Amino acid sequence: MSGPPRLGPPPWARSQGEVLTIKDDAHGFGYWLERPYVSAELREQLVQANVLIVPVERFRQHEGPLFTTGTEELFHFLRAQSPGGVVVDICIEDNDYQEYSLHDATIEIAHLVIGSLVLPLVVHVLWRFIEKRLTKGRGTVKAELTVVEPDGQASTLRYDGPAEEFKQALQKLGSGERPRPPALPSKPRSKKESRRRR
Amino acid sequence: MTLSEVRRFLQAVATHLVERDAAAVKAALVGAKSEAVARGEQAEAKAIWCLEQVLDIQGRYLRAFDLLKHEEFYKAWCDLEQVEIRFVWLESHFRPAGDEYRLATIERLTLQLQELFPYAVFASAEIIAKEKQCTICGQKVSLRNPCGHRVGEIYDGEMCGREITDGELGGVSLTDKPANRYAVAFTGPEGERDHYDYSMLRELLARLQGPFDDWSVELSTAHLPHERYKDLGRNDSCPCGSELKYKHCCLKEPGVRVMHYQLWIGSRSANSPDPSLSWVKVRRGATREGEEA
């Protein structure tokens, strides 16, 4: 076993937190278009979007919309690289755009709300953006994707883990499959519990 | 000094910092770059920017090696971190052929040296950037009316970035995975601030004559006997760092898992590893094999 320097826990450490979570009944496009920091003029523009970059509304003690560092590059990359039919926009006025930076090695992607019809087109572009930021093809990714079905039903996928596994989750999303969180290992049975079962 | 002479200088790579007249090379590159920019030769200016990075990488690596020889470990760490950052900058602009300018060797040895440092916890600033401007044109960053300069691209021989012109510090956190690894957490008492154990680096450096001597590190998993951890309860965290309970992790194994480091001096095909250069690391606290963890 060899490779670039590792920081943090040893390679066999598995986070006790869940890497992938899915939340049904999430906020779709309509919710974000009604946020107080979206003017009527901006709303008219955002209503065209089928990929919307949305902010974090509370970060530590800071109240108000913020985007993770690198969102500016993500916005321009998605706009430049997405195929026809994909309309990318960002849920903030130009003058109100602010970023937070954790200065962490994890590649954090801003929360994306995506119409399910364009999802297969967007996931490939999104992965290309992440891939350019990996060091020697490795790294960890934190992302939140809300997929909105044509009937307005929305579900949010939250991911925080190795980039390679995120690529697989994106591929499943792109192929129309909805990735499910891995089943947690069953808790080892205590001696008392085993006796009771017998 | 012409650009061809600069390239020959960089290709030769002096083996020690003192033998190197980098100032003259730097001046030649700055002059050639400003001439290229004046002529509107963007590709040439970009190629010269790449050579500037090569010069910087070589200089910082040689300095880091000197600092390590003088046991200035933290300063050497900062130079190695800068070397790593410049490799990231260069990645999308310049692909050296083979070991051109010894870049492949420097990159490999830098990563290996970083692996042997005992640093594990870093401070990391959380910043809220309220306003940013482009470092190329100075225009305020605007999402819908961008200046057109892309972060990381080279314009007029300089790399485009973003400068925060209005911001606030959100906080400082301690992390094991910072974006930049300068802010090492030193916890020793006043006057003995650096409490880290650099024995792996010391013993390696004692065996190396020059910065380009070949050596490698082989990592594997070893097991330490459970008797060493007899004070631990079954429900305590496993000492291997898995974040599981001891009873659900290594207690079921022949011993407690640790990273095992074995150093090879010289070419691996010609030598066997030096048996005196073998360590286990327990949660990044370096321990010589056979010593108490």
What's a concise summary of this model?
The complex is a heterodimer of chains A (198) and B (293). Chain A is of the alpha/beta class. Helices cover 29% and strands 26% of the residues of chain A.
List strands and helices in order, with pairings.
The complex is a heterodimer of chains A (198) and B (293).
Chain A: E1 20-24, H1 29-33, H2 40-46, E2 51-54, E3 56-59, E4 62-68, H3 71-81, E5 88-90, E6 99-101, E7 107-108, E8 111-115, H4 119-133, E9 140-148, E10 154-162, H5 163-174, H6 191-197
Parallel strand pairs in A: 2-5, 4-6, 7-9, 8-9
Antiparallel strand pairs in A: 1-10, 2-8, 3-4, 9-10
Helix pairs in contact in A: 3-4, 4-5
Chain B: H1 3-12, H2 22-38, H3 42-69, H4 73-91, H5 103-116, E1 122-134, E2 154-155, E3 158-159, E4 162-175, H6 199-207, E5 215-224, E6 256-265, E7 278-282, E8 285-288
Antiparallel strand pairs in B: 1-4, 2-3, 5-6, 6-7, 7-8
Descriptive report:
The complex is a heterodimer of chains A (198) and B (293). Chain A has 6 helices and 10 strands. Chain A has 198 residues and is an alpha/beta fold. Chain A has helices at 29-33, 40-46, 71-81, 119-133, 163-174, 191-197, and strands spanning 20-24, 51-54, 56-59, 62-68, 88-90, 99-101, 107-108, 111-115, 140-148, 154-162. Chain A has one domain. The longest helix of chain A has 15 residues, at 119-133. With 293 residues, chain B is α+β, with helices and mostly antiparallel strands. Chain B folds into 3 domains: 3-116, no CATH class; 122-175, no CATH class; 214-288, no CATH class. In chain B, the strands form 3 sheets. In chain B, strands 5-6-7-8 form a 4-stranded antiparallel β-sheet. In chain B, α2 (22-38) runs antiparallel to α3 and α3 (42-69) packs antiparallel against α4. The N and C termini of chain B lie far apart (55 Å). Classes of the chains: A alpha/beta (198), B alpha+beta (293). Chains A and B meet through α3 and β6 of A and α5, β1, β4, β5 and β6 of B.
